[in-house]
Amino acid sequence: MQYVGLHTQQARNNFKSGLLLCLFPCLVVLLIFLFSVLLVLFTENPDAEESTPLVDRALVLVRHLAPYLLGGVALWFLIAYFANTAIIRSATGARSLERKDNKRVYNLVENLCMSQGMPMPKIDVIEDDSLNAYAGGINKKTYTVTLSRGIINKLNDEELEAVIAHELSHIRNRDVRLLIVSIVFVGIFAMLTEIAVRSLRFTAVGRKSKDNKGAIIVVLVALVVAVVGYFFATLMRFAISRSREYMADAGAAAMTRRPQALASALRKISQDPAIEAVTRDDVAQLFIEHPRHRKTDKQLFSGLSGLFATHPPIKKRIAILEQF
Prior knowledge:
Layout: H1 6-43, H2 54-92, E1 95-96, H3 103-116, E2 122-126, E3 133-136, E4 144-148, H4 149-154, H5 157-172, H6 175-204, H7 210-256, H8 259-271, H9 281-284, H10 302-305, H11 314-321
Parallel strand pairs: 2-4
Antiparallel strand pairs: 1-2, 3-4
């Protein structure tokens, strides 16, 4: 494997993550246009004479729909963005870990923060014997490093320090904010898909009239567009998550100057990362390793499965760390 320097890897991942994040609002605009084209195509009277090109008629509809749809998405995004920290904390079953409860953990976090000139984040613990950890929060007041009870008890000081450094790297690089943005966008498309499905069921059981047939066509078009948006938004979310894990690994190696310690910790984590309280994939992607991870090496479509993975293969992460 070709050696990749720390700063080069960080620059590459930053560029990829920024590009992927910019694609989310572009995808929203593109889907509004696609919806308008399909709506014009399937709802207009085919016998009527129309000299205006299809695209121009669709653009007129876009100008009417865009302000309302983009405004609704923006409002939805803001509400979900600021509520996400509390939602994630509740979904993982995390609780505050005080200094008096575990001075060892506090000393490791505090020493790393002092060495990097970072403010001390809050520390939470998940009462689970498995090994995992994640960083949460969107600003200095809410930044949190969360560790499972298993990872605290089963890793030695150097390994635990490396894991904490990984999570602090997520905070320093603002990965948590980036991932939450991607999670919210995917959630928007998921909700739109659910609304379209429910609307289709409701419309289909109505009276069979000309207006009802038209309504069914509109809902079907909306459903197709929402599903397409959800699919591509999910792929982008996964790509962001994978690239940021590589960057946090590199950041932890630079912070502790002991990449082998993180490699050793990842080996132990890979043996038992499952956190019982975590049932949602959007929350699972925040962890250092997927807490509901299943071995997929022997899957028939293992090559394609990488596109739908929230984390890069842990063997590959270890191999990169061993280069330093």
